Amino acid sequence: MRGAPVQPEDFDARKLSPSRMNALATCGIAFKMKYLDGLPEERSGSAALRGSVYHKALEDWAPNRAADLLTLVRSAWLSETEGTSVNDFIGIYAALAPEVVRAEHECKIAFKERTGKDSKAIHMSGEWKRHPVKKKVDALFAQWLPRLRDESFWQFTEFDPLPKIYNESLVWARRYQERFGHLPPALYTEFGFDVEWNGFRLNGYIDAIEPLLDRDTGELCGLGIEDYKTYAAPPPQHKDYRQMVVYDIAVRDLLGRGQLTLPPGFEDLPIYVGIDYVRWEDSWRDPDDADKPFPPRRYWSIGPADYERFEREAGAYSDTVERRAFLPAQKGQKVDFCPYPGACCMRSTSAAGGGAELVEVNL
Fold first, then answer.
1. Mean pLDDT over all residues of the chain?
2. CA distance 104 to 131
3. Helix or strand or coil: residue 98?
């Protein structure tokens, strides 16, 4: 159950996962509260909910791409929020959502006709503010806002309100199915691993393993280890590097020990690890080269130099945890979605072991 107390474990600094390593790098204080103190998270950001919905829908769709992804997304919203005020709101809002999506599309067309530009924030436009559907959404959401604000485990902002996130998921489902509906079914979806490697225990979850077909010849050209990401904009290449290396290590280990098996003809294929950018749009450009388009999926071939680098990073992680050298988040870190807002080290020095108090000085 979301938000339920976590049982503190006898924390093993040499048991690691990409999520743990990233959590430590993001904020050592939040890492300590979650993994060592066993404190339940107070709240979670809307991005986490959106990610869980997308992952659930794709887990069910990837093995059967003939299924209707939009239906699976709607179902995932209900299953991932069961027993919450968000679920209650969606049960009512779902009937209005298609009308809202159509209205948003109409407003985008009208905005472009008026300005000659595509709108990146249609809800801020005059077209949307004057549209009669906006009044329906505002009236419904105003009724539910107190419950969503006070009872929901997930935190929504004015830039990512719940209706907007839900609407986007419906639009995304149609685009995604059109983009990848022709691909062969995945061999595996959503499975965990726990492997020993160079004195460390690596664990985590892999979203999918899929056959990769050459677009021109239709021939098998590789085995893709996929991870779904719901980034709103194209990330730099290094962002998910650590996770990609762990996945490569894990899959090769599982295949070598026979815990994963492949169909005939797949055994000798090269293994590539990749990111599927679920919310990709054709307007995306490479952050390192604005003249280059950014692909909806990217793949990497992992080699010995990557294993060596990851082993160094794993050693640094373990050393930090063993010495309890936990640093608070950097100043530039966004704190709106801190899982521990009541004790966030960016809002209170006491949370990070300090005691500074504000004083008034009459100058």
1. 88
2. 9
3. helix
Separation of alpha carbons 238 and 244, rounded Å: 10
Which pLDDT tens digit goes with each residue over 125-158? Answer: 999 999 999 899 889 988 888 888 888 888 887 6
Which of 227, 184, 209 has the alpha carbon at shortest distance from 271?
Answer: 209
Q: Is 331 helix (H, G, I), strand (E, B) or coil?
A: coil
Closest C-alpha to 65, from 189, 218, 227, 183: 183
Q: Quote the crossing angle between the two packed helices 241-256 and 18-26, to the nearest 10°.
A: 160
Among candidate residues 268, 170, 264, the one with its CA nearest the CA of residue 222: 268
Strand partners, 208: 189, 226
Q: At what angle do helices 162-180 and 85-93 cross, to 10 degrees?
A: 70
User: pTM to 2 decimals?
Assistant: 0.86
Q: Provide the residue type at 104 as one letter.
A: E
pLDDT value, residue 336: 63
With beta carbons less than 8 A apart as the criterion, state whether 54 and 228 touch. Answer: yes
Position 335 scores a pLDDT of 65
Distance CA 144, CA 234 (A): 33
Spatial CB neighbours of 145, under 8 Å, sequence gap ≥ 6: none
- Inform me whether the pLDDT recorded for 109 exceeds 90: yes
